[in-house]
Amino acid sequence: MIIFVTDPSKKYSVKILKYLLFIILLIGIGGAVYFGVKDGVFDISSTKEMDVPLEMLYTTVNEYKTWKEWGPWMEYDQNIKFKYPENTIGKGASYSWASEHRKVGDGSMLTIDVEPNKTINQVITFNTPIGDSKSDMHWIFDPVEGSTKTNVTWGMKGESSLMEKVLISLSGEPFEENMKSMFENGLENLEKNVQAEMKKYTITVNGIKQHGGGYYLYTTTVSKISEISEKMAPMMGQVAGYLQENNITMTGMPFTIYNQIDEANGTVIFSACISVNERIITPKGSLVYCGYMEPSRSLKTTLSGNYINLPEAYNKAMEYMTDNNMKPHPAIKMFEVYSTDPGEVPNPANWITEIYIPLDTSSINED
């Protein structure tokens, strides 16, 4: 008779292994139930009041190529690689990125809908080791009543998958708090970036140019030099309104004539003008008149930027005149032409102002 002797220690080892596997299975099932019933829905947003015109902010966010200048993730990885398709603006626009930093990773964004100067809706996709994760992203732009400021809201909403909920819990980092902080940083960066863009300007002394002169309608006032911009808009509106009411066609961009400047007292007499193609006789009692400017040889200087930089532009023009022994015309006053309409061009950096200083022809040496 052959007797098989079983090693008791092996018997117990098998039992222990079974128990361990059973415990692991229970933990797995318990974990799945726990994370499965845990709410994965999120709706995170942040709002900031910005001292920036609404159109500027909308235009900036709507163009994906600007995001690398203010995106909050740039603080984690300055070496992010961006890829841009042909369309990066408006509905259907997109872009993608790649980063080795764990908080940035790889992903893409697609604009699915826009309402100009009001809302932008996007889908953001993160490429993760457990698959792609998609969420809805939105922007809301609201003007602040009675000012040029804007309330901007940036938010994201969606629902985390089971594995995403597990990874978020294991990471020990508060997901919603981190995202809200990122939105807040992004909005702050956006405001600073747009404000910096708005402050850019260039001044170019173009040299001596022939200006054709001609008829124009105008209204005149006396003002402190510091209040010119404040008074200019309603005056231009008055002249433009007269043209519209009387079906008169403007033949050039609006301009200002500086009739008399008293720097000692900080005052100026100036006229807000719009060119017309013929002499217009305005009725008695009207505050709008018709004038005529003689053709002139003028020193032209161009400012590309906010009107607050005009004093510097005039200083450069005067320096040029001094360096070249030029003298102003004794009768024709200096004037500036506004080649862009701020109502149509929201970024002050793109405003074009042409300064003309008519010259005494006897002082011109063009050899």
Chart the SSEs and their pairings.
Layout: H1 8-37, E1 41-50, H2 54-61, H3 67-70, E2 81-83, E3 94-98, E4 106-115, E5 119-128, E6 131-143, E7 150-159, H4 162-171, H5 175-198, E8 202-211, E9 214-224, H6 228-245, E10 255-262, E11 267-275, E12 289-293, E13 296-304, H7 310-323, E14 335-338, E15 352-358
Antiparallel strand pairs: 1-7, 2-3, 3-4, 4-5, 5-6, 6-7, 8-13, 9-11, 9-12, 10-11, 10-14, 13-15, 14-15
Properties at a glance:
367 residues, alpha+beta, Alpha-D-Glucose-1,6-Bisphosphate, Chain A, domain 4, Multidrug-efflux Transporter 1 Regulator Bmrr, Chain A, 2 domains, 8-stranded antiparallel β-sheet, 7-stranded antiparallel β-sheet, 29% helix, 34% strand, disordered N terminus
Report on the architecture of this protein.
By secondary structure, this protein is of the alpha+beta class. It has 2 domains: 40-198, Alpha-D-Glucose-1,6-Bisphosphate, Chain A, domain 4 (2-Layer Sandwich); 202-363, Alpha-Beta Barrel (Multidrug-efflux Transporter 1 Regulator Bmrr, Chain A), CATH 3.20.80. The protein has 7 helices and 15 strands. It has helices spanning 8-37, 54-61, 67-70, 162-171, 175-198, 228-245, 310-323; strands at 41-50, 81-83, 94-98, 106-115, 119-128, 131-143, 150-159, 202-211, 214-224, 255-262, 267-275, 289-293, 296-304, 335-338, 352-358. Strands 8-13-15-14-10-11-9-12 form an 8-stranded antiparallel β-sheet. Strands 1-7-6-5-4-3-2 form a 7-stranded antiparallel β-sheet.
